[in-house]
Amino acid sequence: MEVRSEGGIQVRCDKLPAPVIARTRLQVWFIRVCSSLFLWTCLVQLVAVGELWHPHLLSNITNRISAITQDPLPAVPSPPPLLPARNYTSNGFLRVSCNGGLNQMRAAICDMVTVARLLNLTLVVPELDKTSFWADPSNFEDIFDVRHFIDSLRDEVRIVRRLPKMFSRKYGHKPFEMPPVSWSNERYYLEQILPLISKHKVLHFNRTDARVANNWIPLDLQKLRCRVNFQALKFTPQIETLGYKLVRILQEKGPFVALHLRYEMDMLAFSGCTHGCTEEEAAELKRLRYAYPWWREKEIVSEEKRSHGLCPLTPEESALLLQALGFHKDTQIYIAAGEIYGSERRLAPLRAAFPRIVKKESLLSLEELQQFQNHSSQMAALDFIVSVASNTFVPTYDGNMAKLVEGHRRYLGFKKSILLDRKRLVELLDMHLNGTLSWNEFSVAVRSTHEKRMGQPTRRRVVADKPKEEDYFYANPQECLCEGTNCDDLLSPSNSSEGG
């Protein structure tokens, strides 16, 4: 007699006919399959429920499942563990209302974290400007990853999302409000601001642009400003995803230049730069300037300002500049800017010289950009990501975005940024256009002028008692760009910034 075991069931083969034996084997196989499916379903449900309640609880299980069901993927580096929170007795709360556009506010946030650290304060998540020309309703968490901002700085500064209720107006508390003095060093904050905090417990800085000096600040505070700027201020996942998609689209088509063409309505109105505009356009820009009472400079002589290099280049001037610098007709150029004043009519000469001009609006669908419409700071964040990643960055005006992108590109290994000497450029452009300077002479002069203005390592230029005229910390945070004895060689006097 032969006895076989099938899945734990003993079958007496001499007693059963062949069809029955085959049917029995089929039943056993069916039971095995059903059992396996049942166990797999239970495991999947368990993982799903675990992720719902404790997203990280079952991460090891899901990783093992992925390893079984997929080809191995390159290891993604884990975020560094959070440093222990700094233990200190807070002297009070610091509220800040940032003013200006995205990059002006970004620099201000870095400064205010540094002030909070210096004075042992608790910083309330900064409030962003909603009343400026752009009227952007975005809050901090709409642009920056607020959780990352708080956690990544916990070893330096305690940051809270909002003031405790006991300090709200509802409970009768009135915070002391003031703008700190511009370009101030640590002595000002320790001697003038800290006593105010001790008295009022909550201090509200209602303006924050350029409120910390560029130079003569202790090294640890300078490095903290960099840490906030380069590490703590991450854009939201939505902004980063779309920004990196733009970069990927551009890179797939080859190297590209990011041209920060600051030829926008607000820039022209407030600077008074109307070179190349019609009389009607110049009048419109002047009316806009008068419509904003807080803008003190009303009557402006455009050509005089342009001759001093204080105006952004026009699209026509930008085309000549890029050609003189040696960029070819097929160069891919990304316009990092909002709506160009005069729209496609003013862009026509630039587009004729460089047909491969693109903007975010031409690279992305309306649906992709819809969530960012009417949010100028979020749109500027996309341009910021692309500008930092570009092969070459060319700003036509040295505003806040130009300076902060320049600083980021220095931090990433001194990536090529062509920093224009606009005063000299205006002279050369006018001579070429009036026929006194040939194209070859113009091109040679433009290249020689900018030979040492390509974002190479340099020391910041210091102008005693004139902080507005010296190099801006965030454009060249030299204290954060190298370590040890190599710094002196890298930032030797022969590499010092030139004026202009």
What would you say this structure looks like, in words?
- This protein is of the alpha/beta class and 500 residues long.
- It folds into 2 domains: 93-231; 237-484, no CATH class.
- It has 20 helices and 11 strands.
- The chain has helices at 18-53, 59-69, 102-118, 140-143, 146-152, 186-200, 219-232, 237-252, 265-271, 279-290, 302-307, 315-324, 343-353, 360-363, 366-370, 376-389, 400-411, 422-433, 439-449, 486-490; strands at residues 3-6, 9-12, 93-96, 122-124, 158-160, 176-178, 202-205, 256-260, 332-335, 357-358, 392-395.
- The strands form 3 sheets. It has a 5-stranded parallel β-sheet with strand order 5-4-3-7-6.
- Helix 18 packs antiparallel against helix 19.
- It is found in: Membrane.
Poorly predicted runs of 5 or more residues? 1-16, 46-76, 496-500
Q: Structural class, from secondary structure content?
A: alpha/beta
The profile of the biggest β sheet is: 5 strands, parallel
Helix run count:
20
Strands in their spatial order, largest beta sheet: 5-4-3-7-6
Number of domains: 2
Portion in beta strands: 5-15%
How much helicity do the residues have?
Answer: 40-55%
Mean pLDDT: 86
User: N- to C-terminal separation?
Assistant: 105 Å
User: From the alpha-carbon coordinates, what is the Rg to the nearest angstrom?
Assistant: 30 Å
Outline type: globular
Subcellular location: Membrane
Main location: membrane
GO cellular component, one term: chloroplast
Pathway: Glycan metabolism
